[in-house]
Design goal:
The chain has about 350 residues and is of the alpha+beta class. Helices cover about 25% and strands about 30% of the residues. Bound molecules: uridine-diphosphate-2(N-acetylglucosaminyl) butyric acid.
Length: about 350
């Protein structure tokens, strides 16, 4: 087992925060994962599981064992007339996997092209874009259950997938996702009703073109983390109840909103931030992107403290203007590798 010490995590998190891990290991198999977990237990270290690093905020020092998930592989499982199931390693790059499914003429994930990160993280916050959430195409998730100390499989219906949420968020230290079992379609069922997607598609109503247009729209709005370190949408779109919404829309008739089940309404965080004057605005080296106010960018060598100063200021201005509290999307860790409340 190759445990490294004092490892710089800057290249492993897309916000490019300076962060030194006291202990670090890359795991490429379930067995290696189990050995690493045992090492952590023996040495009384917390475990911080690192996937693509595209949804996390890390402090400058972490006293914990950071386990970088690197289980690869795609395996064909069962098929029927309409669908094909696939078992995919948690360490597989998400976007490359989506592109691969399209080449294989397997459909469903095309709307989710270009989302950063790895396959294993996709069920955690039930990644979603352009009218599709990954949970719709997951059959089950294979995990190492740290509570029961065994490998097990969780059916999608037991994962409780909702907007940017699943059981993996409720109980973050219990499960380590090792593989995801997808059930993809053999014939496309195009979801093109979101925003400007239909117009962008033109007459070419194919899954290949859908994927191409999603990539094009994302590239035109969202900054490339290699150039502008970021974690995608920094805030969730707030979901509020009908009473709160009625008061808000009376004052701000243009607020983009999307009705939800249970008499609730989702409102666009990007619009709130933009209206509060933060689009393209910076506080020192951290700011909200000029083409999409929902994305926070580390423009130089920011630390977690700098990031917090900016996002707290954005939260305050949005709250003072609209009375709505924005909740950050990325997970915040403390110096012992544990998840913190924002
Ligand atoms: N808006 C503004 N100003 C801005 C940004 C947005 O006025 O600076 C307005 C837009 O005009 C639009 C509304 O806000 O009316 C919503 O914006 P957009 O369509 O860009 O989508 P979003 O709600 O901001 C969500 C997801 C994205 C996903 C897109 C497409 C969340 C928090 N974000 O963004 O997810 O790609 O829809 O489906 O749900 C991510 O999670 O990292 C992510 C990029």
């Amino acid at each position: 087992m190759n445990i490294e010490s004092q490892v710089q995590l800057k290249p492993f998190n897309t916000l490019s925060l300076d962060s030194i891990a006291s202990h670090f290991i890359k795991v490429q198999s379930v067995q290696a994962l189990q050995e690493a977990l045992l090492f952590a237990e023996t040495n009384e270290l917390n475990v911080l599981l690192l996937s693509g690093g595209s949804n996390m905020m890390l402090p400058e020092q972490i006293q914990a064992l950071v386990i970088a998930m690197d289980i690869q592989g795609i395996e064909f499982l069962n098929e029927d007339e309409h669908s094909q199931t696939l078992k995919v390693g948690a360490g597989q790059n998400w976007h490359d996997f989506v592109l691969w499914t399209t080449v294989q003429q397997l459909y469903g994930l095309q709307n989710l092209a270009l989302i950063p990160g790895l396959v294993g993280a996709s069920p955690v916050q039930n990644i979603g874009a352009y009218g599709v959430e990954v949970g719709e195409f997951i059959q089950s998730v294979e995990v190492f259950d740290r509570k029961l100390n065994q490998v097990t499989s969780i059916l999608a219906s037991d994962c409780h997938f909702t907007y940017r949420h699943s059981i993996f968020k409720d109980d973050p230290n219990r499960y380590v996702i090792t593989h995801v079992i997808f059930k993809l379609l053999k014939f496309p069922d195009l979801k093109i009703n979101y925003g400007d997607l239909k117009t962008a598609m033109g007459d070419e109503l194919t899954a290949e073109n859908l994927q191409k247009q999603v990539i094009h729209i994302r590239q035109s709005k969202l900054p490339d983390p290699k150039q502008y370190p970021n974690v995608g949408s920094f805030f969730k779109n707030p979901i509020i109840n009908q009473t709160e919404f009625s008061q808000l829309i009376a004052k701000f008739p243009n607020i983009p909103h999307y009705p939800q089940t249970g008499n609730q309404v989702k409102i666009a965080a990007g619009w709130l931030i933009d209206q509060a004057g933060w689009k393209g605005k910076r506080l020192d080296q951290v700011g909200m992107f000029e083409k999409q106010a929902l994305v926070l960018v580390n423009y130089a060598n920011a630390t977690l403290t700098d990031v917090q100063a900016t996002y707290h200021a954005v939260q305050k201005d949005v709250f003072d203007t609209f009375g709505v509290r924005l909740e950050p999307e990325p997970v915040l860790f403390n110096e012992f590798g544990l998840i913190q409340n924002h």
